[in-house]
Amino acid sequence: MNLLEECRGAGRIGISGHIRPDGDCIGSCMGLYLYLKKELPEAEIRVFLEKPADIYGCISRIEDVDSAYGEQKNFDVFFALDSVADRLGKAQPYFENAKKRINIDHHISNANGCGNVNYVDPQASSTSELVYRLIGNDGLDQEIAKALYMGIAHDTGCFQYSCTTPETLRAAADLISYGFDFSRLIEETFFEKTYLQMQILGRALLESIRFMDDRCVVSVLNRKTLDFYGAGPQDLEGIVSQLRSIKGVECAIFLYETGAQEYKVSLRSSEKVNVAAIASYFGGGGHVRAAGCTMTGTAHDVINNLSLHIERQLDGGEA
Ligand code: AMP
Ligand code: MN
Ligand code: MN
Question: Read out DSSP for 188-256?
């Protein structure tokens, strides 16, 4: 796919990514936004996302992100990044009513794409790596490079997860050659946590329970606890990967209450369990080693339902 070719003649171009945007979602949307702004000065270009966390304040033009979704007029081209159509939240109608719908993604649960033009590669580390590929060397500058590097670093757990490939590292090497302060970028957006975030992480670890011969671990944060700490979804990122890091754990489950008998579920696996398959079964999706969904019922019901699938995989050996 050639980005500029796809946008030729378009007067109004929109970009969005999934709800509760993470580093890759924000990095890929902003990288593409900065690139199109630079290359297509005549076009009206808009980027829509749920309000990015304050840590992303270091990304150029993040203040341009529209989180009010007041737009009424249709777009000529609309990009859905790091997402399927039904995770775009309030931007979903913009995507669906656009003349041309372009989907760029790396989720295996979205292998066919949801646009009329699709660039989906489930082998890619991140959507930011895909945007890097599409922009190519000639189109980069320091600010675009910074946004894309951040996205790649976040989705690879700083180049640690198995989705990291030689191509990922070559992309990262090229991106840091643009001279931004990558150590600081990663410290500020990935490692640094507020006191509240650390407290709630501690609470989640303290209350975690291992089961299935200690091959699984689960932790649940209910509404009351979240309210006690004043914690929102953005304060809970990273908890599930800490649970997954426990020695001997094959599969980690983290739940937090989003409504009456409704839980956001995050799943991570070390080597054996295909969590994308489990999350997809329950109406969500993601990657083989990291996936999510929303489930209803008591926390007990949710854990029991998930456990059945995990156990079947662990004992049946399917991956
Ligand atoms: P999370 O556990 O929310 O950090 O998500 C892990 C991975 O699964 C990320 O790549 C998410 O984009 C993806 N994911 C989470 N929830 C869903 C969902 N409901 N549908 C599709 N993908 C999801
Ligand atoms: Mn994402
Ligand atoms: Mn991603």
Answer: IIII---HHHHHHHHHHHHT-EEETTTTEEEEEE-HHHHHHHT--GGGSTTHHHHHHTSTT-SEEEEEE
Q: Which atom of ligand 1 is nearest to the CA of 20?
A: 3
Cβ atoms within 10 Å of 131's Cβ, excluding its own: 28
d(CA 299, CA 190): 29
Distance from the Cα of residue 114 to its chain's centroid: 17
State if residue 23 touches ligand 1 by the CB under 6 angstroms criterion.
no
Q: Which atom of ligand 1 is nearest to the CA of 265?
A: 2
Q: Quote the longest CA-to-CA distance of the chain.
A: 61
pTM for the model: 0.94
| Digit-coded pLDDT (tens) for 289-316 | 999 999 999 999 999 999 999 999 998 7
Question: In the predicted model, what is the mean pLDDT of the chain?
Answer: 96
The yes-or-no verdict on residue 317 having pLDDT over 70 is no
| Nearest ligand to the CA atom of 114 | 1
Mutation choice for ligand 1 from 109, 162, 235, 295, CB with most ligand atoms inside 8 A: 109
For 217-231, what is each residue's pLDDT tens digit? 999 999 999 999 999
Task: Locate 318 and state its tokens.
Answer: 């399917």
290 close to ligand 1 (CB < 6 Angstrom) = yes
Residue 266 Cβ < 6 Å to ligand 1: yes
